[in-house]
Amino acid sequence: MMTTMNMIEIERVLRELRLSGMAATLQTRLLQAQATEQPFVETLTLLLQDELD
Hints:
Blueprint: H1 7-16, H2 20-36, H3 40-52
Helix pairs in contact: 1-2, 2-3
């Protein structure tokens, strides 16, 4: 059974996975996605690019 995580938990897990670039921009990317009704895949792509940058 999968449990829902809150933002603090998600950011902690991203840092544990050494994905600090994604953790740093997660809030901003989610707000941007909600405001523009951005598709999930596009949002995920931007988060992955944040990690690479």
